[in-house]
Amino acid sequence: MTPAPSALRVAIIGAGPAGIYAGNILNRLVLEAGHTVAIDLFDALPAPYGLIRYGVAPDHPRIKGIVKSLQEMLDAGNMRFIGNVSYGTDLTLADLREHYHAVIFATGAIHDAPLVIDGIDLPGSFGAADFVSWYDGHPDVPLEWPLDATDVAVIGNGNVALDVARILAKHADDLLSTDIPASVYAGLAGSPVTDVHVFGRRGPSQVKFTPIELRELADIPDVDLVVYAEDFTPDSFSEQLVASNNQVKIMTRTLNGWLTRAPLGASRRLHLHFMHAPLEVYGDGRVEGIRFERTEHTGDGNVRATGQIVDYPVQAVYRAVGYRGSALTEVPFDTVRGVIPNDGGRVLDASGEPIAGLYATGWIKRGPVGLIGHTKGDALETVTRLVADLPALVAGDTIESPDSAPDAILALLEQRGVEFTTWAGWRALDAHEQLLGSQDLAHPGRERIKVISRAEQVEISRTEALLTL
Ligand SMILES: Cc1cc2nc3c(=O)[nH]c(=O)nc-3n(C[C@H](O)[C@H](O)[C@H](O)COP(=O)(O)OP(=O)(O)OC[C@H]3O[C@@H](n4cnc5c(N)ncnc54)[C@H](O)[C@@H]3O)c2cc1C
Ligand SMILES: NC(=O)c1ccc[n+]([C@@H]2O[C@H](COP(=O)([O-])OP(=O)(O)OC[C@H]3O[C@@H](n4cnc5c(N)ncnc54)[C@H](OP(=O)(O)O)[C@@H]3O)[C@@H](O)[C@H]2O)c1
To answer: What is the pLDDT of residues 397-454, one digit of tens each?
Structure first.
């Protein structure tokens, strides 16, 4: 039996930008196709926005503009946010199959990619993703971070490496206009750091930074920027890249400009090193230094080892060599790329065939690279596939049962004792955090202070607004 158009039900797992864009686009395209759709947007965290809340650096408030437009999408009421619900634990694939015609996985990436070198697991060696989660007040990481090093190495030449290096080098007081929780301020304020060294294995023209993020380094109060002439070896491939790519041109010019910048005598320094491939983190029972092999250009954008070994005595190492998606229960996973195998967003089984009703979008679809805006195009591609599949999705409908009623999934969660949060609950928590910010009279204009604890977030969300779904 062909169901009434209003019967189409879609679950989206992950309320980061990819999931929210997918819900918004899905609603529009399904309407254009003459149907209506009920969308439930689940997240394992009590609050929405994924890495915008728990990845974007606190001193990057301009990103808040994106949150505003995502918030408008959720305020419009076309999709229902259900937070604090973890797929794989609180809900199974069978549950979703029972209640929805289709599922879109938008679970992103939260963990560090591995860096396989000796000593990487020594105490004092950290993954950038864990540190980011800490300074962004993620509820699932410890409240305290060991900031006891004067000299720190950050491995990687991407924007995450810059975020980590900047937050490590900045004086805590210069972050007090941001949303950092008190425990993060206290941790950073106690840091004895004097020198933060960022290492790239390739050259200044092969960095994966973006120009604004790079230039920002020059404006950190009381932090001197140091670059080294020996890292700027001429290379014809790099010269061609500079000539053909405006972004590379800007960044190479910026870096070259810093070669002649006189030090200001700041109390902290941020060093940018290039042509250093990490070999080993060394130390007796904890990090005492990091060993690199110098590299040289091969002429095609890559580098090769030169055999020249160089050691830097440091007491902490942060690897910022990329993020990695995690496998989801009962969903195919490409362990090499850390993504859900898919064709334009349609999830593929082991033989490469699409699995009916399962889709993926965002970083879990194409890997942990790209800006928030890129997840929009991603979502459009995935949702276009889903809409093309509409006839098949609703044909032979198996969820034409009382269980397909919108509140059945909530009843199931309640029955399992899952303390789910809602959009109204998030708005209450959002208002609460903003109030905390406005109450910091010592720092007028503070937009919010984040609540870290999951239990506290859930309590504020549920007390204020549970049944206003
Ligand atoms: C440190 C860092 C800083 C960044 N800064 C910027 C920036 O300044 N500007 C910019 O444009 N881009 C930035 N990016 C990139 C941007 O964050 C990503 O492009 C974007 O967040 C990817 O969106 P996503 O929705 O795919 O994943 P995510 O944002 O990771 O969202 C995934 C969501 O899925 C949820 N989830 C995961 N597993 C489950 C499960 N089992 N059940 C239920 N829910 C689950 C997670 O809790 C999360 O909320 C940054 C990235 C990082 C790592
Ligand atoms: N402000 C912002 O806009 C912002 C902030 C943070 C993140 N982001 C975005 O989020 C995405 C993820 O950023 P990211 O920094 O995690 O990843 P990324 O941009 O892919 O950078 C990863 C870095 O790690 C290096 N690397 C990888 N493996 C290595 C190894 N074995 N040894 C040494 N170095 C190694 C890479 O070097 P090679 O190039 O040589 O491989 C590269 O420099 C990016 O698209 C980024 O732009 C944006």
So the answer is: 655 444 567 889 999 999 999 999 999 999 999 999 999 999 988 888 888 999 999 9
For the residues 205-209, what does the mean pLDDT come to? 96
pLDDT in tens, 303-315: 999 999 999 999 9
Determine the 3-state secondary structure of 109 from DSSP.
coil
Element (H, E) at 377: helix 374-388
CA distance 80 to 455: 21
For residue 94, what are the contacts with CB-CB under 8 A and spacing of at least 6?
none
Q: Is the CB of 204 under 6 A from ligand 2?
A: no
Topology, domain 5-110+325-418 = Rossmann fold (3.40.50)
pLDDT of 289 > 70? The answer is: yes
Is the distance from the beta carbon of residue 158 to the nearest atom of ligand 2 less than 6 Å?
Answer: yes
The Cβ of residue 133 has, within 10 Å, a number of other Cβ atoms equal to 21
Q: In which band, very low, low, confident or very high, does the pLDDT at 1 lie, cut at 50, 70 and 90? A: very low
φ/ψ bin of 233: left (φ > 0), alpha (ψ from -120 to 50), beta (otherwise): beta
Query: Are β-strands 268-273 and 223-227 bridged in parallel, bridged antiparallel, or unpaired?
Result: parallel
Tokens of 171: 């004086």
Q: How far apart are CA 188 and CA 144, in angstroms?
A: 10
Tokens 């009434």 — which residue? 4
Cα–Cα nearest to 153, from 181, 176, 187, 119:
119
**What's the CATH number of domain 113-323, 3.90.230.10, 3.30.70.580, 3.20.20.150, 3.50.50.60?**
3.50.50.60
pLDDT at position 467 = 45
d(CA 212, CA 251) in angstroms, rounded, equals: 9
| CA 119 to chain CA centroid, nearest Å | 26
The structural domains of the chain, with segments of one domain joined by +, span 5-110+325-418, 113-323
Nearest 5°: phi and psi at 65? -60, -35
| Residue 319 predicted with pLDDT over 60 | yes
**369 Cα nearest atom in ligand 2:** 45
Cα–Cα–Cα angle for 325, 202, 200, nearest 5°? Answer: 65
Q: How would DSSP label each residue in 437-465?
A: HHT-TTSTT--------HHHHHHHHHHHH
Report which residue type is found at 286.
R
Distance 124 CA to ligand 2 centre (A): 21
Q: How many CB atoms lie within 10 A of CB 177?
A: 17
Residue 328 CA: nearest ligand 1 atom is: 41
Query: Ligand 1: distance of its center to the CA of 113 in Å?
Result: 15
